[in-house]
Amino acid sequence: MWSHTEKKVKVSDLQGKVIGLYFSANWYPPCRNFTPVLVEFYEQLKTSGSNFEIVYVSSDEDLDAFNNYHGSMPWLAIPFSDLETKKALNKKFDIEAFPFTKERLEKLMEEEREKHERQTLTNLLTNHDRDHLLGHPRPKQVPIASLIGKTVGLFFSAQWCVPCVKFIPKLISMYQKIKQMLVEKGDEDFEIVYMSNDRDQESFDSYFNTMPWLALPFGDPTVKDLAKHFDVHGIPCLIILGPDGKTVTRQGRNLINLYQENAYPFTEAKVELLEKQMDEEAKSLPRLVYHSGHRHELTLVSEGNGGGPFICCDCDEQGSGWAYQCLECGYEVHPKCLSVADRDSTGNT
């Protein structure tokens, strides 16, 4: 095996140690997001004198990618050229169980389930020296207790994140429409709390000033705790909490993209109703069309008929359910993003 400093290490040197096999790849965003977390965990264990070791099992596309990615890891790796060993390990091990035994994993899952069942808005958002959120105009402080009984969105985002900056105008529009809708009903309320991943106070201030909702203070450790609690690996991310403080969905961003303000209150029952409406509307959509943004013919597909979760090539947002898909190259768009065009105008002959 190779160390991260390109030094050869004998397999026999691992005798008597607890070994974790890390199946990963540089080209897959969830892997790149998780690797720094694992590095921190690994270094903490090594500092404490643990006999734990990690061996990287690569799925990188070439040797340069492997070398660059492994260079960010302080542990060992199967040589990139050793395809037979990597194939055998991928076939042999259930990587979803890494790095725990079945019994340990079941115990951790049970503990996690109990933690989510006990969660309330108060114990999620407060800490020992803060019981408020930031509001507008600054430096307004809003008691967390004032949000109890409301549907609340936890918005993980950052000014440096291009998808976040593109998504926020849509979220602001939907937030304002939902708030107006609820004012007319008079018996419910909705709020969003910004969870900053900004790099500095100045960036936080500038970005938060564009938002009409509340925020945790910049640098508050609660943000990292909540990202771990809700398993947030990418931004933007919108977690929806119900009036009882329990998690309604982790897919708030996707639901906003699909259903706009109609997604509220984001419950399973509401989503099921919206999906049925979408299925009904799809009956009147053309099966085959040309889109002004693509030269090939597009086919209407659903999750049960060749489709599945996707990123819309027109608006760059998530999608699921119905889509127009190019069977030649995989191009996909939301039906709402489709701009019907003549065959000749798309460059086809």
Which stretches of 5+ consecutive residues score pLDDT under 50? 95-101
Beta fraction of the residues? 15-25%
The CATH H-level homologous superfamily of the largest domain: Glutaredoxin
Biggest sheet details:
5 strands, mixed
Strand order of the largest sheet: 8-7-6-9-10
Going by helix content, strand content and strand pairing, the class is alpha/beta
Pfam family, one: C1_2
Protein name: protein-disulfide reductase
Catalytic activity: [protein]-dithiol + NAD(+) = [protein]-disulfide + NADH + H(+); [protein]-dithiol + NADP(+) = [protein]-disulfide + NADPH + H(+)
Keywords: NAD, Oxidoreductase, Repeat
Describe this protein with a few key phrases.
349 residues; alpha/beta; Glutaredoxin; Wheat Germ Agglutinin (Isolectin 2), domain 1; 5-stranded mixed sheet; 4-stranded antiparallel sheet; 35% helix; protein-disulfide reductase; Thioredoxin-like_sf
